């Protein structure tokens, strides 16, 4: 189930982008200071699934200089798997068959059987967004999927530091009840109709920009996204969550120097974490 969490976080990261009015430097690691903080904290933009999740020297130093790791959700929570299992299914007995035409359901059935090895009847009551997330490992050209979150947690454990979250599993899962299931199903159907060719091309571009630490480029790339989940419901999947995180980031940073690891798409934009923290009076500068 932890692997499924990585898939979910990756899917959210893939969608979590927005436009920006002012150019930000090419950096994934940012120092948070000022506004009464006794010691700086750090904000790091991750990508939740990759072939190489190696952490560079700057990231390791920031982890050494902090005493708490905070991710999007507390991935150390032993009850996380059970909480997720309770919330991956659609409400009110809905299934994929209720969300698309008979012709499109046939297309989805064939696609899911090919991609997952499971018939649509077996997984058709899962929220379509999560079904899409199951296919994301196929976008990677490597045998073993790695996660930056996992690497960050390894160091936190070695340093005997606690791992916490900016939102609960229930809060994150609830996001996908606010986005209409029909829109999620249309995104899944689009992937099925082009056999994920758009997804693969977008992922390759995204990985190249991530390697370049170009968070502005990532935001602009995702403006070209064709997913309804992103274009119609950006406020739900991104903006509202970022705004809810700011008070929690402040509380953690005031109590102790903290390393925050969130999807890189959460960093840029007027409603991105960097600008929102700056508007609150904090100095947020890139570690180049």
UniProtKB/TrEMBL annotation:
Pfam family, one: TraB_PrgY_gumN
Record carries keyword Signal: yes
Cleaved signal peptide residues: 1-21
Keyword Zinc on entry: no
Keywords recorded for this protein, A-Z: Signal
CDD domains reported in the protein's UniProt record: Tiki
Taxonomic superkingdom: Bacteria
Coiled coil: none
InterPro entries tied to this protein: TraB/PrgY/GumN_fam, YbaP-like
Protein name: TraB/GumN family protein
């Amino acid at each position: 189930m932890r692997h499924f969490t990585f898939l979910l976080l990756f899917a959210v990261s893939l969608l979590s982008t927005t436009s920006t009015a002012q150019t930000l430097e090419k950096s994934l690691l940012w120092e948070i200071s000022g506004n009464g903080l006794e010691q700086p904290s750090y904000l790091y933009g991750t990508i939740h699934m990759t072939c190489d999740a190696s952490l560079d020297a700057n990231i390791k130093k920031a982890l050494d200089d902090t005493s708490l790791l905070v991710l999007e959700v507390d991935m150390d929570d032993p009850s996380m798997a059970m909480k997720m299992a309770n919330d991956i299914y659609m409400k009110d007995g809905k299934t994929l068959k209720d969300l698309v035409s008979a012709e499109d359901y046939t297309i989805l059935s064939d696609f899911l059987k090919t991609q997952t090895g499971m018939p649509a009847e077996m997984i058709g009551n899962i929220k379509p967004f999560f079904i899409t997330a199951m296919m994301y490992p196929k976008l990677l050209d490597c045998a073993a999927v790695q996660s930056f979150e996992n690497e960050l947690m390894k160091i936190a454990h070695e340093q005997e530091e606690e791992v916490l979250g900016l939102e609960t599993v229930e809060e994150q899962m609830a996001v996908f009840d606010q986005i209409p299931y029909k829109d999620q199903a249309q995104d899944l159907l689009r992937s099925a109709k082009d056999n994920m060719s758009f997804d693969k091309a977008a992922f390759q571009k995204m990985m190249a920009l991530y390697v370049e630490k170009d968070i502005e480029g990532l935001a602009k790339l995702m403006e070209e996204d064709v997913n309804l989940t992103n274009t119609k419901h950006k406020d739900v999947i991104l903006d509202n969550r970022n705004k809810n995180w700011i008070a929690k980031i402040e509380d953690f940073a005031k109590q102790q120097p903290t390393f925050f690891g969130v999807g890189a798409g959460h960093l840029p934009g007027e409603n991105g974490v960097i600008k929102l923290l700056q508007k609150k009076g904090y100095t947020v500068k890139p570690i180049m």
